[in-house]
Write a structure and sequence with these properties.
single chain, 220 residues, alpha/beta, Rossmann fold, 2 domains, seven-stranded mixed sheet, two-stranded antiparallel sheet, 10 helices, 43% helix, 17% strand
């Protein structure tokens, strides 16, 4: 853990995949089915984890050109087949959100996973009661790292301009989004960020797991 003293948050925004849950098996199977369908080579799992950080809405035009809409439809159909079977909660995630909620912290999710699929996963885990807002790809006019999904997530929070908001994620997109939206950027290490990215978008604090972050919160 590398950490500066954390300020007590009025709100915490979480990324989803590789921050609170692991559903990369479903994403990997779905993107590879789509790549093959579109006449492309499959990706390794490492490639999928590295390359599938942007929303499909943003990434598919670059991958598939004029066939992006067709590919997007096929990808979502494939993902719906695999989605819930491959959903796993990461170490300490549930305890962390319960602790934050118990202490009156406003909780939200901002993810580049399709919004309907995201909310389905949150509901499957029984976590809908903890999150006041769940914002996924295509819910706002732009996806992460834009500030727009953050604004949507905080719309009902009733926070002042000086309120402390944590943004907890695992990717450079999360650090970018946190920084441009004025949140405290907190990194949960997943091995997906290089040193150069950390120099460009430095986190306030780095933790190896949600369990470590919960301990830091309780020590504030």
């Amino acid at each position: 853990m590398k950490s500066s003293k954390l300020p007590f948050p009025a709100a915490v925004i979480f990324d989803w995949d590789s921050t609170l849950v692991d559903n990369w098996k479903a994403i990997h199977l779905s993107i590879n089915a789509t790549l093959v369908k579109m006449g492309h080579q499959k990706w390794t799992e490492d490639e999928t984890r590295r390359r599938a950080k942007s929303s499909a809405r943003d990434a598919f035009p670059g991958l598939f050109g004029e066939k992006a809409e067709q590919a997007l439809k096929f990808f979502y159909e494939a993902f719906e087949r695999f989605q819930l079977d491959a959903l796993n909660v990461l170490n300490g995630a549930e305890d962390l959100i319960k602790t934050l909620s118990k202490n009156g912290v406003y909780l939200a999710i901002v993810s580049n996973k399709n919004g309907d699929h995201l909310r389905k996963e949150v509901a499957e885990l029984g976590w809908s009661l903890y999150f006041q807002a769940v914002v996924g790809a295509s819910d706002a006019i732009e996806d992460k790292p834009s500030i727009e999904p953050v604004k949507m997530a905080l719309k009902s929070a009733g926070l002042g301009s000086k309120s402390i908001i944590w943004f907890v994620g695992d990717s450079v997109l999360d650090l970018q989004c946190a920084t441009v939206s004025g949140c405290v950027p907190i990194l949960i290490e997943s091995g997906s960020i290089g040193d150069e990215c950390l120099k460009d978008w430095p986190p306030h604090s780095i933790f190896s797991s949600c369990k470590e972050l919960e301990k830091a919160f309780l020590d504030i």
